[in-house]
Amino acid sequence: MAVEEEGLRVFQSVKIKIGEAKNIPPYPGPNRMRDCYCTVNLDQEEVFRTKIVEKSLCPFYGEDFYCEIPRSFRHLSFYIFDRDVFRRDSSIGKVAVKKEDLQKYHGKDTWFQLQPVSADSEVQVSTERTPSFLINSCFVLECQGLPIVNGQCDPYAAVSLLGLSRKKATSRFFSFLFIPSGPNYTKRQFDVEEEDVDKLALRVDLWNASNLKFGDEFLGGVRVPLRVLGQAGVHDAWYFLQPRENGGKSVKVEDLGSLRLNIVYTEDHVFPSEHYTPLRDLLLDSANVEPVSASAAHTLGEVCREKQEAAIPLVRLFLHYGKIVPFISAIAHAEINRTQDPNTIFRGNSLTSKCIDETMKLAGMHYLQVTLKPIIDEICTEHKSCEIDPVKLKDLSENLRLYVDRIFNVITTSGVRCPTVMCDIFFSLRESAATRFQVDQDVRYTAVSSFIFLRFFAPAILSPNLFHLRPHHPDPATSRTLTLISKTIQTLGSLAKSKSANFKESYMAAFYDYFNEQKYADAVKNFLDLISTSGKWDQKSIETPIMLKEGFMIKRAQGRNRFGMKNFKKRWFRLTNHEFTYHKTKGEGALCSIPIENILAVERLEEESFKMKNMFQVIQPERALYIQANNCVEARDWIDILTKVSQCNRKRLSTYHPSAYLNGHWLCCKLSADSAPGCTPCTGGLPANIQLDVDGDRETERIYSLFSTYMTKLIKMQEACGSKSVYDGPEQEEYSSFVIDDPQETYKTLKQIISAVQTLEQQHTKYKRDKFKKTKIGSQEHPIGDKSFQCYIHQQSESSTYSI
């Protein structure tokens, strides 16, 4: 979800590796050990939580987290908590990185010192807005952007006039929208000498009313000296919420320990689509360029430091426009023709191999879940011993052998579910390899197995959390089991004839002897034949229900009973590849079941509908189900996965209502008929068989950014083209890193790339020049922020009497 900013869209994403914590202070008791977990927060909104590492003062997490950030934020924060079974979990320390400082740590493993956490110092809103000040009366109008704290948000404001002893007034308002003339409005009046005005300050504090015994939670506050109001009596400004002054006890930072993190924050500024037409057209025509090494897409792979950098946006762009198969076929064919030994085919980290890897991750994610997730879940929950130490091999290998057999069977019988785009790519690889190496009868299999087994199934088994098969990294014992399974499956898929050539460990070679039978090789070949035959498969084959996602959320009653109460209730939601259900609690029977084929659209619901954040709607033929997720990232995850499983439904809607139907009309378009067609285009229309929602302009912007970063290499590649054209002889060493088959055609492409990049560079320069528009905050200047808190002060007379 993009944030609109003066004619362009800004996309934010963050990729985090939470490594480990060290030297956590011991628990003040006889055991001294702690059960710690780490949370990731946007400001104070928790968006991710690691597993709990028990009984450790140096917990290792080793977890990766990626999310698109759907709103503006000020801090990316990390909290270490100690689990407490009987009371609220206690916070040990935190790391808070300002948004503007994230680039300092970009892609680097960094140890951060944990800082103390104080209730008074925690500001739980992104920004505060006070747009209009007129001196003598204060009205708190409304709040926006407040967080959900412990599952609820019941804010109130405390307004104080500070600076004179014994003369302090406070007014409290207890509704989500603060109504100035409501029943909770309180008036205080007192006289102030003119010369004392400069000593006064207006203080507005935000609190969350809590029903818990721990008391209300401080959200943040603002202090405004009255002198900033000036003679005109009008003050228009933005304010950031601040911590409470002198809040918290002093804690020695070095006593709290440290946390190792790797943070990659990306911000894409995307212009209207027409600005990208020249570069986008040049890229999408790459498959038609002869030779393909002279194309714009191949050139990007040549100049990038890592092929993965180029592969990610290229694959997403070509998938979006339905041109991924001809592009990969072209670059794969060229690479195969340059390969001399069939045993080394696709062994390197080339642009071709990285593009196929990325395509499988994107197009094949649902395929992985349906195929592997049930057995991976079982392995992770059963915790069976699978060690094959040589001494204990005879006694303990049975569990591992059974697991390998089951996983091998589910893989080799899953060919009919392999996504069409992957089948078409594998068909191209098989044909090119068989044509190039006609003597080798197995190359048509190894060209495909090197991807589907080595780079797809084996890594997913080894690290299921990275492929969304498990929420967290497995424990050490389970991880060991998955490593042994992954090695065996990888070797079976490679059709290895020698049992010992593929293992460094002798005990693995002995274990593999169980599978050294012709039936396993035949099963692999049949599977590879099936998935490398071009054509569209019937995706409606009967499948066992696979649980894809589950968790607690809040839903609004659907109104199936005409006279029933349409209230909000917390329910356990469960999504499989067959149905979407909700239950009173986990493990109980379904209160409602929605077949996947009945989901017509899944879209966000505007906050104004129910004055609630993080809401989305599941639209059915007769009604819509309104749901509130626990945070913005979770809401996006549910929308994405519900859209993916329902995207091929024949009756999917093209338009929807972004707001709810309340009080006899749609809030968005004001139409009175509850069956009125939608007023806004749906966002979830995805190409069949490719379960991915891609923004083509955003990917082109990322490619522009890469070309801009490596501009010096583009120029050097131009020089290499000139050198090759003039000097027809052995390749000069300084240009040997570039693949240039046709210097003239490559030079022509480079010239077009540089021209398109320079045009976009001019647009970015203009945007940066116009971006730094600021507005005054009292006597300071700050960039414009989000609306989150609004306060209005009105002058009634020119006397020295102040009313609050």
Automatic annotation (TrEMBL):
Short name of any one Pfam family annotated for the protein: C2
* Residue span(s) of domain PH: 546-647
Keyword Transferase carried by entry:
no
The record's Gene3D superfamilies line, in alphabetical order, gives: C2 domain, GTPase Activation - p120gap, domain 1, Pleckstrin-homology domain (PH domain)/Phosphotyrosine-binding domain (PTB)
Report domain Ras-GAP positions.
Answer: 306-494
Q: Which GO terms describe its molecular function?
A: GTPase activator activity; zinc ion binding
Tell me the PROSITE patterns matching this sequence.
C2, PH_DOMAIN, RAS_GTPASE_ACTIV_1, RAS_GTPASE_ACTIV_2, ZF_BTK
GO terms for biological process? intracellular signal transduction; negative regulation of Ras protein signal transduction
Keyword list (alphabetical) reads:
GTPase activation, Metal-binding, Repeat, Zinc, Zinc-finger
Query: From what superkingdom does this record's organism come?
Result: Eukaryota
Q: Which SUPFAM superfamilies match?
A: C2 domain (Calcium/lipid-binding domain, CaLB) (SSF49562), GTPase activation domain, GAP (SSF48350), PH domain-like (SSF50729)
**Keyword Ribosomal protein tagged:** no
Domain C2 intervals: 1-112, 117-239
Its name, as the record gives it, is: RAS p21 protein activator 3
Q: Which organism is it from?
A: Nothobranchius furzeri
Q: Which gene encodes it?
A: RASA3
